[in-house]
Design goal:
Pfam families: PadR, Vir_act_alpha_C
Number of domains: 2
CATH topology of the largest domain: Arc Repressor Mutant, subunit A
Organism: Glycomyces artemisiae
Helix content: 55-70%
Largest sheet: 3 strands, antiparallel
Domain Transcription regulator PadR C-terminal: 90-169
CATH superfamily of the largest domain: Winged helix-like DNA-binding domain superfamily/Winged helix DNA-binding domain
Number of helices: 8
Biased composition (Low complexity): 177-190
Strand content: 5-15%
Structural class: mainly alpha
Region (Disordered): 169-190
Amino acid sequence: MSLRYALLGLLADSPASGYDLTQRFEKQLQMIWPAKHPQIYGELGKLADAGLIAVDSEGPRGRKVYAITPEGLAEVRRWLTEEPVDHTARLEALLRSLFYWLMDPEDLGEHLASEAAFYRAAAAGFREYAAAKDRGDYGDAPSVKSMRMTIEAGIRLYEALADWAEWAQTVPPPGPAAEGAASEGSEAER
């Protein structure tokens, strides 16, 4: 459902084609809310059917540029102010950490080092993007100022995850599980 509001928010900034929106997702939102070409086009059709966006213009080869309607703008504002935020964190890295006891200590160490490096690199990428925004490379439109807040959240989140992965490398490894332990059950289960 949030893809709908991401598209409405992007179109509130400026009209765009499905291709343009796909590019914005790849460049601006990839690390926080990824969406693929077919998902975007499918949702654009639903938004148009609901009267929340309209075709602003058509270009060569039937390329449609969409613009948000007043109803669409009211809907995205309603979502921002009235809908409760879904704070569910669906981070595969954290799900996997629940099962680290199944990994060999050497594999776990390599995995955690890789995770720390990934998160440090992601934070660095966000920092570069922040520096460009702070220099004014993208102007000073309200959408740019808002994106700067999002970038700062990304920096802080990925730095925290890198810190966690580095910390996890310093604690005694929880595994590996003995062969057949999963089928035999733990002492507490017997």
